[in-house]
Amino acid sequence: MTPLRHLAFVINAQKEGAADIAHDLMAIATEAGATVKTTSDYPVADDFLEDCDSCCVIGGDGTLLGVTRAAARSNVPIIGVNRGSLGFLTTFSAEQAREYFADIIAGNYTISERALLDCSSAPGQHDLALNDVLIKDERHSRLVELSLFADDEFVTTYSCDGLIFSSPTGSTAYNLSAGGPLIHPTAETIVLTPICPHTLSNRSIIFRQDVQLRVIPRHSEACLLVAVDGQRNISICEGNPVHITVSDKKLRLINHSTYNHFAVVRQKLGWSGGAIKGC
C-alpha cells in the first residue's frame, strides 16, 4: 500500500492514556518523515482532513464516530486506537499501535471499506451513519407506531419503543443489544431491529443493499427523534417520513496486515472454544 506522509490525529483527551499514546505515535510518524496535525475536538469539520493521507483516532468508538462523516466525504482512511471499552471500530490496542505504527506508515497495512447509511428527513438534508439510525418517539417513555415501506411496498406497522436501522459495522452495537444479528462488516445490507415490539413475532429483517426504506409515523401529530450514530439528533414532526438507504460513500478503516475480523469478535465478545486442530 501507499506510505502515509500526512497524518491527522484526533485525540480524546478524556480517555486515560490517550495523550501519552498520541505523543508516542506522533514521534514515530515524524521520525519517519511524515507531517502531523492534531485536534481534541470532535466531530471534526469536513475540511480538517484536507490533504491528509490518514487520520489516527485515539479514544473509543464514539470518538471514531465523530470523525466518520468528514473521513467518508474526504475519502481519508482512519486508524483507530482504542482507549474506550469494547472498541469494535478502534481495533488497535495501545500496545499494537506502538508496535505496528512504523509498519503502517511505511505502507504495510490493509484497508477495509465499510458501508454507510444515508438518512434523509427533509429534501436536500442527508446525514451519514456508520453504526445505526434510531427512530423513536421524541418523548422517551412513549410507545411509538411506525409504518415501514421497502421500495414503496408496505412491510408492517410496528408498535414498539423504536426502530434500529443498522449497517453491518453497527450490527455489534445497539442492534446486538436489542437482539439483532451479527453481520459481517463487508456485507452491504441494512438490518432493521425493532426495540421491544408489542407483537412478539416482529423480529429483525435484513434488507439488500439497494433497498429504499421509508418510515412514517402512524399518527401525524407524533414527533419523532432520529438519532444518527447516537451523536446527531434530529426532531421530526407533522408526520414527515424518514428515508434510509445505503450510501454511495464508504468509510475506509486501516488495519495491520495481521488483522483478523473474527479474532477481534471472539476477543471483544468473550466467545469461548478453540479451533479444530488441522483446520
Describe this protein with a few key phrases.
Rossmann fold; Tumour Suppressor Smad4; alpha+beta; globular; 279 residues; 6-stranded antiparallel sheet; 2 domains
What does this protein look like?
This protein has five helices and 16 strands. Helix 1 (18-31) runs parallel beside helix 3 (94-106). It starts with 5 loop residues before the first strand and ends in a 10-residue tail after the last helix. The chain has 279 residues and is α+β, with helices and mostly antiparallel strands. It has a six-stranded antiparallel beta sheet. It comes from Actomonas aquatica. Pfam families: NAD_kinase, NAD_kinase_C.
> Span from first to last CA?
30 Å
Number of helices: 5
Average the pLDDT over all residues and give the rounded result.
93
Spatial strand arrangement across the major sheet: 6-5-16-13-8-9
Task: Tell me roughly what share of residues is in helical segments.
Answer: 10-25%
- Sheet with the most strands? 6 strands, antiparallel
Please state the structural category.
Answer: alpha+beta
Backbone shape: globular
Beta-strand portion reads: 35-45%
Reported by name, the CATH topology of the largest domain is: Tumour Suppressor Smad4
Order of helices and strands, N to C?
EHEEHEHEEEEEEHEEEEEEH
Count of distinct structural domains: 2
Highest CATH level, the class of the largest domain: Mainly Beta
Please tell me the CATH architecture of the largest domain by its name: Sandwich
